[in-house]
Amino acid sequence: MSSSGQNVDTSSSAHTSTPPLHIGEMDITWNHVVEKLIDGKKIICCLYCGKVSTGGGINRMKQHSAGKKCEIRPCQKVPLDVRYQIEQSIKEIVEKKRENQERHIVENLYGSHVVEMGDLDDYDEIEEI
Questions:
Q1: Closest CA to 22 of 57, 52, 50
Q2: Which 8-state DSSP code applies to residue 57?
Q3: Closest Cα to residue 27, out of 70, 65, 75?
Q4: Of the four listed, 43, 89, 103, 128, which is most buried by Cβ atoms within 10 Å?
């Protein structure tokens, strides 16, 4: 059944199994899903329950495999050790994003055009008011 509630025949000869069509880091969730092209559309199918997602990419299937109730129903058949690994992956991503946001706020606390006092020597044309 697809994410829109429709049944999709993933055993049909109308599709081809391909390596992941994503760009970027290898996510552990790719080991537990298969990505296929059906009639030119990319779908991702859970290897445990057969759930098909036509949108949301690997993030949505990660939520499905981790048992998160978000935009897709949780997988009831994923092994507990796999669920735990994917939950940990989600936590790491959330923590990394939080750290990057905090670092960005600290780095840009006063704006991008602030000159530190030590850098004033580089400006010969500073005019006193």
A1: 57
A2: H
A3: 65
A4: 43
Which of 29-33, 37-41, 42-46 has the lowest average pLDDT? 37-41
Establish if 4 belongs to a structural domain. no
Q: What's the CA gap between 120 and 18, in Å, rounded?
A: 57
Domain annotation covers residue 8: no
Residue 53 counted as domain residue: yes
Percent of the chain with pLDDT over 90: 44
Q: Using CA atoms, how far apart are residues 118 and 18, in angstroms rounded to an integer? A: 56
Q: Which two tokens stand for residue 125?
A: 């044309």
* Rounded Cα–Cα distance for residues 109 and 107 (Å): 6
How many domains does the structure of the chain reveal?
A: 1
Inter-residue contact 64 to 52 (CB < 8 Å):
no
Range of the domain at 80: 15-110
Given the DSSP bridges, would you call strands 33-38 and 52-53 parallel, antiparallel or unpaired?
Answer: unpaired
pTM of the model: 0.61
